[in-house]
Amino acid sequence: MENPFLKGKVEGITDIGDPVSAEKVAELKPDLIVVSKEDEYEKMSKIAPTVLIPYATSKNVEEDVRQIADLVGEKKAGEAWLDKFHQKAKESREKLAGKLKPNETVGIYEVQDKDFYVMGQN
Prior knowledge:
Helix 3 packs antiparallel against helix 4. Helix content is about 40%, strand content about 10%. Strand 3 and strand 4 form a beta hairpin. It is globular. The strands form 2 sheets. A two-stranded parallel ribbon has the order 1-2. It folds into 2 domains: about 50 residues, no CATH class; about 40 residues, no CATH class. The two termini are about 20 Å apart. It is α+β, with helices and mostly antiparallel strands and about 120 residues long. It has 4 helices and 4 strands.
């Protein structure tokens, strides 16, 4: 929630902590909880119906979005989101065209106060 890239995009979203606080989740009275860790599944399934989607098991963003859209009964909204995502990706590729030589690569990193992330395939 403190990530500078999220500034202006998380207003009205309750911070449930990291690690996730079961008490804060329970206060929200969710209809469905999606978790990525088995130990979270056990705690959260006592609060509401819970689905475990293990981290890094999907092959791509399309699979992730379609799975969540299907879970919440919003397949059309999921496809609309993917259409917009693909359009933005196309526009970004066009902006980058010619900026890299054929054998050059790009690394994407995120630096936070105490963490450093290297982005990969998923």
